[in-house]
Design goal:
The protein is of the alpha/beta class. It has 7 helices and 6 strands; from the N terminus they run E-H-H-E-H-E-H-E-H-E-H-E-H. The chain has a 6-stranded parallel β-sheet, with helices on both faces.
Length: 233
Amino acid sequence: MLDISEDAPGLAEEPARAVDDGRERPPLDLLIWDAPNIDMTLSTVIGARPTAASRPRFDAIAAWFVDGAGDPARPDASDVEACVFANIPPQPGSLQRWVEALRGFGYSVFARPKSQPDDDIDQDMLDHIAVRQHSHRLRRLVVFSGDGRNFADPLEDLVRQGVQVVVVAFSEVAGYAIGSDLLEFIDIEDVPGAFTEPLDRVRLDALPPDGAWLRPTRSLRDFVAGFTARRTG
């Protein structure tokens, strides 16, 4: 469980700073969830389309995040905000129920229509972080995303400015955070209660002492059939 130490630099001991109109900025713990990336990487690590049983539990993640913000009765207690960013296809299907469930758990949802395959929401996430950095004293930022191409440099810059930045993703696809000297990393499956049952994956960062067999994610015959078709086509 993430713990914020009272004597950690840039956190509890940092005095509130004023915004342009002279008001003090309240401290904030902010969670950003990159829904397209987490969904895609979940499919990658389990080698299958996620089911209801293998998808993360947003209620448990909310509880973990709020608990990490510390005692709300403290004089310097942080506000907490959790935001999910999602691309919505033309036929949303069950996404309406998903969005309403998130809102019921206390998450804000930024939903952008996905009209083209390359439509993305990364800039929207970075823009919101910048807005909150201006309106609040950003104390802790928790980013659920394995997208190092768009997040590595901006997140490391925030750490240099005194923000505690935690990346939560799957270790198989989050090399940018694991290898960083500035960012903290937590595998999403290590968040208490994030999944109702263990995912069908073997983590190379948590192998049993005697080793483990990693099963194929597709049939050998199916692969060869496709390979032969491409080669002869």
